[in-house]
Automatic annotation (TrEMBL), chain A:
Protein's UniProt name: Cytochrome c
Organism (species): Geomonas limicola
GO cellular component terms given for this protein: cell envelope
PANTHER family reported for this sequence: C-TYPE POLYHEME CYTOCHROME OMCC, DISSIMILATORY SULFITE REDUCTASE SIRA
Keywords for the protein's UniProt record, in alphabetical order: Electron transport, Heme, Iron, Membrane, Metal-binding, Signal, Transmembrane, Transmembrane helix, Transport
GO molecular-function terms, A-Z: metal ion binding
Superkingdom classification of source: Bacteria
TrEMBL record, chain B:
Protein name: Cytochrome b
Presence of the UniProt keyword Ion transport in the record: no
Cytochrome b/b6 N-terminal region profile domain boundaries: 7-219
GO MF annotations, alphabetized: electron transfer activity; metal ion binding; oxidoreductase activity
Record domain Cytochrome b/b6 C-terminal region profile: where: 236-368
Membrane-spanning residues: 37-63, 84-110, 122-142, 149-170, 190-210, 258-277, 314-333, 345-367
UniProt source species: Geomonas limicola
Keyword NAD assigned: no
Amino acid sequence: MMMRIKFPRTLLATAAVLLGVGLFCGSARAEQPETVCIQCHGSLPDRLGAPVKLWRTSVHAENGISCNACHGGDPKDAADAMNRSRGFLGAPKEADIPAFCGRCHPGVLKDYLASAHGRALGKGGPTCVTCHTNHAVQRASLTIINEKTCSRCHSFERARVIRDAMQQTEGSIVSIDRRIKTYQSQGVDTERLGKSLFAVRNRFHSLFHEVSVTKVQGESAQINGELAKLDRDLKVIEETRAKRKVVGGIVVAGALILAILFHLLKKTYDEK
Amino acid sequence: MALIKRLYNWLDLRIGAKEIVEQELTGYLLPKNINEWYSLGSVLLVIFTLQVVTGLLLLVYYVPDAEKAFKSVTYIMNELPYGWLIRLCHAVGSNMMVAVLIMHMLSTLFMKSYKSPRELNWLTGFMLFTLVQGISLTGYLLPWSQLSFWATTVATNSAAAIPVVGPYLVEFLRGSKLVGPATLGRFFALHVGVIPAVIAGLIGAHLFCLKRTGISTPPFGANTETGTHWSPEHYRYESHPGGIPFFPNYALQDLTSISVYFAVFLAVVFFAPNLLFTPDAFVPANAFQTPAHIKPEWYFLANYQTLKIFPSELLGLSVQAAAMTFLALLPFIDRSPERNPFKRPLFLACFFGGFLLWVGLSVWGHYS
């Protein structure tokens, strides 16, 4: 049976205040700071819009490196985004591409210029984008050294020998990287390990532009030694976590045994 | 044992300990058909105490500064001896507190223990539920991770849907236009100072109401009186002559429930702590990089989905406000004296329908 309700106004006001917390939790919108380059080019068709789609799949996008980081300009001002006075650089000429990328990757630029590829710059030799592409740039890995890519310019034979010498090291780096990422996503402080792997990976990647098989093999052996150290550190983390689980199992079992004991004890009192 | 007896006698001579024990423990009689669901209140008291203890321990090393907060939490989790255990107990405990509180409220609803003369018990309990959500929300920001930063951005952004005052309210909540150091300062003060104090006060008020009205009789079982016969003319304590004593009988039930709770709680802490964390929870906050999928905590998923369903956020907020007001004022709306839910099919349908709707919206919100 429903009765006529008389609510004091203060009661209603109190209830309304109380509702506050439960209500403002969960808007469907987030504020996404997107550059004007992406806002504009993302909606353009064909040649002008294609770079945005490609960029979204890249390692640059993954790390928040947007258009203006390479091409310059003002990413917050649509009217002057491509104004030269705001630092807009546009697309580089072919011979300028290594220097263009090398602003952020100076070590790689040095390795490239010292390599057979770099020495052929301006004489028909490849630039960075020949192998790495320009917008859908992926994290550098051995998969870049493949018959399809290399045989566009020369025979794959020598490149195959170098790639095979680096294969094991690459496998170890990928495996350690995956383990570090897994632990990082679980709250383990992997900063030191991540930095060490970053340094090792960079050293390893400097071999990617090297064409001396002996040097590649020698350097790879040293790098493998450093990776073994990282592997040992990760094993210590694994062992610690395994020990915690054993303790956890004992504690949970203890709580369940206590629950059973209390329940049985209660029954003895209920029967009295 | 002799020493304890001597100490007990010593205390009794001075403060009348035996009389207190007789009155509050062995002589405190509860309904004969009392069930396990009544012990959830005790479980909640234990959880709240544990949250206070772990929170105080975290305070020793946590730094409420946008530059240092994430690093201090990382230090607690990785360097500090048993810091990981304290932090996980606090984080998992907050989720468990909401879960157990929901179960406590559902059992109260189902057994209709909110009815007269227990309106104040229900209201204080409802306020506690809202404040527990508030303390969880404010605590969520403190690690200053990508997850906490963006979840808070999304949550505070909802207030913008309120006409006229919305944008000012958002700025007031954040302490600035965007979530930033000022927001962290505000949320920290609310989380460790204001809300816990109010919660403690309300727990006191809730227990006071419970002591003054007496424990409600479950509306089930043979020969059970299922109607309320409280008359608003005079105060009456609901006693249970011939009932079971709180100590040792029901105290053992409380201990059983608390032990079961600890088994579940510790199983999550030791074996599945990442059930409650996404990888973004371990990445420092970055105002310029929005994570791909921002979802609120599981207990806000239904609210989140409701806002998405309606064409305008204001409409979504209004619907939620109406639902919450209805729930808060239920004891004043549902005045039927019948307490057995099986004798009230409409109530039963609303209860299960409402619960399934909440679960459905939460699941939808999770996968949307």
